[in-house]
Amino acid sequence: EALGRTGGRLFVRRGDPGRVVPAIAASAGAAAVLWNDAVTPFGRRRDANVQRGLACPCHVEAGNWVAQPGTIRRPNGEPYQ
After folding, report:
1. Is 40 exposed, middle or buried (0-12, 13-18, 19+ CB in 10 A)?
2. How far is the CA of 44 from the CAs of 1, 39, 40, 70, in angstroms?
3. pLDDT in tens, 4-57
4. How far apart are the first and last CA of the chain?
5. Residues 41/57/54/33 CA torsion (nearest 10 deg)
6. Which three-class secondary structure string do you get for 27-57?
C-alpha cells in the first residue's frame, strides 16, 4: 500500500531468474539492471545466468559488507573461510 501511495508498483514473478529477470527487463525497456553481488556458489551461478540473458548492461555492486568477502587474508596470505 505504501509503495502504491508513492506511485510505485510491485511485481512478483516466479521461475528461473536467468529467464524471468531478462524477460522483465526487456518488457520494461530497461536501460540497465542493478543488483548486489552474491558470494555463495549458488548466488554466483544464478547471477551469471541472469547476466548472460540480459540484452542491456548490468551493474553489480558490492553488498552490505564491512569488507568484501575474500579481501581480508590470514598471515599466510590465504583468505579466511
Report:
1. exposed
2. 33, 6, 6, 14
3. 999 998 889 999 999 999 999 999 999 999 999 888 899 999 999 999 999 999
4. 42
5. 70
6. HHCCCCEEEECCCCHHHHHHHHHHHHHCCCC
Angle at 60 between CA 4 and CA 56, to 5 degrees: 75
pTM as predicted? 0.73
Spatial separation of the C-alpha atoms in residues 35 and 26, rounded to whole Å: 16
Instruction: Give residue 64's pLDDT.
Output: 79
Determine the Cα–Cα distance for residues 44 and 17; give it in Å rounded to an integer: 12
pLDDT at 65: 78
CA–CA separation, 52 and 58 (whole Å): 10
CA distance 23 to 26: 5
What is the predicted pLDDT for the residue at 63? 80
Look up residue 62 and give its amino acid. Answer: A
